Amino acid sequence: MTEHPDLTPTFGTGRTFDPAAAPAATAALDPPPLGSTPAQTVGPYLHIGLLWPDGPDVVPEGTPGAIWIRGQVFDGAGAVVPDALVETWQADPDGRFDHPDDPRGARPPAVPGFRGFGRSATDADGRYEIRTLKPGALPGPDGEAEAPHLNLSIFARGLLHRLVTRLYFPDEEAANAADPVLGTVDPARRATLVARPAPDGLRFDIHLQGPDETVFFAV
User: Strands (DSSP E) along the chain, which ranges?
Assistant: First the structure.
């Protein structure tokens, strides 16, 4: 099971200050110390300023080869989460990033309009959707190839920090079997990281807790 953080707010403590016990001038110059701000959960305020109309579009409409990745977010009781946010980050179809952290060097994608990043809020039924292209394989840090995958971050009320997971592709059985990250996951739970075929792309449901809990990674 994923270890979820304690959601109980904690407050800082400081020495107490008694203005009656100090001269007025000293009290004015030496205000009492303030406690730390209590911990806050991610949602539902993520809907303020974090969404934009084309957020789900990693590639523009009409891009050849584009697919939809759709799914629902569920809580530990199996109820849908209507105010979550799903973010995706991925390589382009050549397995490259237009980002300075790519050790091979940043390279603009060959696909016009590809931005590598998507963001979709869930609706009243807990559904999200991302329009994208299948990424290419990636070289791992030890020279082992990583199977094509998407990196996902999930934000929702009740979470102090984002949850991080991956989406692997069902038509990449050989690559998935050799993937060094997927290989560290209990075989009985690897299926929670593999999307299922759908008529216009893939379906990938996310379970925050419970018997079908998605595998999340500590990053």
Answer: 67-74, 85-89, 117-121, 127-132, 138-139, 145-146, 149-155, 163-168, 196-198, 201-203, 206-207
